[in-house]
Amino acid sequence: MTTADKNLPVDSLETTARPDSTAARLGRFAIGSLFGITFMVLCFIMLTAALKGPDTIKVDGVNTTNFGLIGTPREERLKTGDAAPDFVLAQLGGEPVQLSKLLGKTVLINFWASWCAPCREEMPAIEHFYEKYKAQNVVVLAVNLKDTDEIAKSYFKDNNLKMPLLMDRTGLVPGGYRATGVPESYFVDVNGKVRAFSIGIMDDKQLEDNLQATWAAGGK
């Protein structure tokens, strides 16, 4: 075969394009539409997740316009076995929560604030504890002190925290517990009695130990 036989003129390589059929156009349109709809659905799911606030807890029978500590502040620190001071606080995204309405559940009360560096360090462990035990009759109440609603909710959203968020706008509830600062946490048994407490940061093991001590003393 000669060189001339191997090299064809460009014109000889051209083929006549077939007319685009209606079925082919409809097929491409359907595929494009499917991808577009899928993309929009994914964007909606991501946006909904990003805007979702903290989880809420429903407490029946709370009917008050007065938020804060119920009763007078204690003159001395709480001891294990003491009744947990009652309070009513606003819940972001939900109805007000009154502690005494949670009898029959184990409750972890965590006093915190977004401006408190140790609180921020502790929050992932508290959230992990919440996710682990929320289906086991354990309630976690993250009681925020003096942040605005917007700051507290933004902090929860930015850090993907889902535990119920209560707002103590006056900062008086910790006084009922004779709390000395934040973070500070109290474990309340099913009968409303304090069974363990922690001053400062708790890690996963301390949270677990305090819960087990609460269950051992007051039941589940």
SSE blueprint and pairings:
Elements: H1 3-6, H2 10-13, H3 22-51, E1 68-69, E2 87-91, E3 97-98, E4 106-112, H4 117-133, E5 138-145, H5 149-158, E6 165-168, H6 173-176, E7 184-188, E8 194-199, H7 204-218
Parallel strand pairs: 4-5, 5-6
Antiparallel strand pairs: 1-2, 2-3, 2-6, 4-7, 7-8
Note down, in words, how this protein is organized:
The structure is a single chain. With 220 residues, the chain is an alpha+beta fold. The chain is 38% helix and 18% strand. It is built from 7 helices and 8 strands. Strands 1, 2, 3, 4, 5, 6, 7 and 8 form an 8-stranded mixed β-sheet that branches. The longest helix has 30 residues, at 22-51.
Which series of helices and strands comes N to C?
HHHEEEEHEHEHEEH
Please, how many helices?
Answer: 7
Structural class: alpha+beta
**Strand proportion:** 15-25%
Short description:
With 220 residues, the protein is of the alpha+beta class. It is built from seven helices and eight strands; from the N terminus they run H-H-H-E-E-E-E-H-E-H-E-H-E-E-H.
Question: Notable features of this structure?
Answer:
220 residues, alpha+beta, eight-stranded mixed beta sheet, elongated, disordered N terminus
